[in-house]
From TrEMBL:
Gene3D superfamilies: Vaccinia Virus protein VP39
Annotated keywords: Cytoplasm, Methyltransferase, S-adenosyl-L-methionine, Transferase, tRNA processing
Family label: Belongs to the class I-like SAM-binding methyltransferase superfamily. RNA methyltransferase RlmE family. TRM7 subfamily.
Domain of life, per lineage: Eukaryota
Function field: Methylates the 2'-O-ribose of nucleotides at positions 32 and 34 of the tRNA anticodon loop of substrate tRNAs.
Organism: Lepisosteus oculatus
Catalytic activities: cytidine(32)/guanosine(34) in tRNA + 2 S-adenosyl-L-methionine = 2'-O-methylcytidine(32)/2'-O-methylguanosine(34) in tRNA + 2 S-adenosyl-L-homocysteine + 2 H(+)
Localization per Swiss-Prot or TrEMBL: Cytoplasm; Nucleus
One Gene Ontology biological process: tRNA nucleoside ribose methylation
The keyword Cell cycle appears for this protein: no
Name of protein: Putative tRNA (cytidine(32)/guanosine(34)-2'-O)-methyltransferase
EC number(s) on file: 2.1.1.205
Record text on subunit structure and interactions: Interacts with WDR6; the interaction is direct, and required for 2'-O-methylation of position 34 in substrate tRNAs.
Length: 309
């Protein structure tokens, strides 16, 4: 798909570029935040699975403002991939399933726990929905696991989920650690996508809980259909569609130029990928190294040379 068709297709992608955001889903959870005050008073925030960094960018702008409010504010971004530098954000290139990453986060906070942890982690999507949902759920539990090492009691956790058939299990697991769990679907997230966000407030682990990276919650129970669970065992999480009807609809196609009095200008991405997996292929193509050997003049191994009759 070409650049302009991508522009045309996703209104929130275009708006994020115009406003100078790397690419931003978190920005559109902010209508939810205005009522729930997730960000208010936060001094230490962790962005898990942060690359290329749009959530960190929002946190930095919201928590540090123009720089004056930045005293005491610390933001740590963690990802397996390297990220371009962002003002006011400390980056850790690491794995969220490792205890060493949790320890490094706490070191950056000088021994203090975080007030807020956010996670927009996503595995490389395979297209097999059950597999993708399962891996996403495992990644979320890994994020929850590391969160139990770094979050202060009373702190908040916001994470992306896929609302698949076992989502009830996820809600139940989160409810063990947080007194309030809500599922939020921002206007920027297409209706056709099973993506949504869990907003977990007031971290209150069970008494005597000792954070552990090999948390047994990560093991799935295959023989239970969690949607059939009833009574007190079934956790019903409120579902909230955030943003009002005046916001753009992410499932609609809008004209390229929203303001007809202005001329359309293509805006390049705010942050280009710094180490994309296709980098080597681009290099080979640019230097014409992808050219194939002309096989028509070389006889194939095992075949006898052809002669014109
Ligand atoms: N929140 C980011 C933003 O707004 O710019 C986008 C995050 S992207 C959808 C998902 C990220 O999860 C990828 O950059 C990937 O490297 C990261 N990720 C996946 N598994 C991870 C792991 N085990 N530890 C750290 N990062 C991981």
């Amino acid at each position: 798909m070409g650049r302009s068709s991508k522009d045309k297709r996703d209104i929130y992608y275009r708006l994020a570029k115009e406003e100078g955001w790397n690419l931003c889903a978190f920005l559109y959870i902010l209508p939810y935040d205005s009522s729930k005050r997730i960000i208010l008073g936060v001094c230490r925030a962790v962005d898990l699975c942060a690359a290329p960094g749009s959530w960190s960018q929002v946190l930095s702008r919201k928590l540090r403002g123009d720089g004056e409010r930045s005293v005491g504010v610390k933001i740590v971004a963690v990802d397996l991939q390297a990220m371009a530098p962002l003002p006011g954000v400390t980056q850790i290139q690491g794995d969220i399933t490792k205890i060493s990453t949790a320890q490094e986060i706490i070191r950056h906070f000088e021994g203090q726990p975080a007030d807020l942890v956010v996670c927009d982690g996503a595995p490389d999507v395979t297209g097999l929905h059950d597999v993708d949902e399962y891996i996403q759920a495992q990644l979320l539990l890994a994020a929850l696991n590391i969160t139990t090492h770094v979050l202060k009691p009373g702190g908040n956790f916001v994470a992306k989920i896929f609302r698949g058939k076992d989502v009830t299990l996820l809600y139940s697991q989160l409810k063990i650690f947080f007194s309030t769990v809500t599922c939020a679907k921002p206007r920027s997230s297409r209706n056709s996508s099973i993506e949504a966000f869990v907003v977990c407030q007031n971290y209150s682990p069970p008494e005597g809980y000792v954070p552990n990276m090999s948390n047994p919650l990560l093991d799935h129970c295959y023989d239970v259909d969690f949607n059939q669970v009833e009574g007190p065992n079934r956790v019903i999480v409120p579902f909230l569609a955030c943003g009002d009807l005046s916001a753009y609809d992410s499932d609609r196609t809008y004209p390229l130029q929203l303001d007809p009095s202005k001329e359309y200008h293509y805006l390049p991405p705010t942050q280009l990928p710094i180490q994309p997996p296709y980098q080597q292929a681009c290099h080979l193509r640019k230097h014409n190294l992808l050219a194939k050997e002309d096989v028509s003049s070389t006889p194939r191994e095992g075949s006898s040379p052809t002669h014109d009759l």
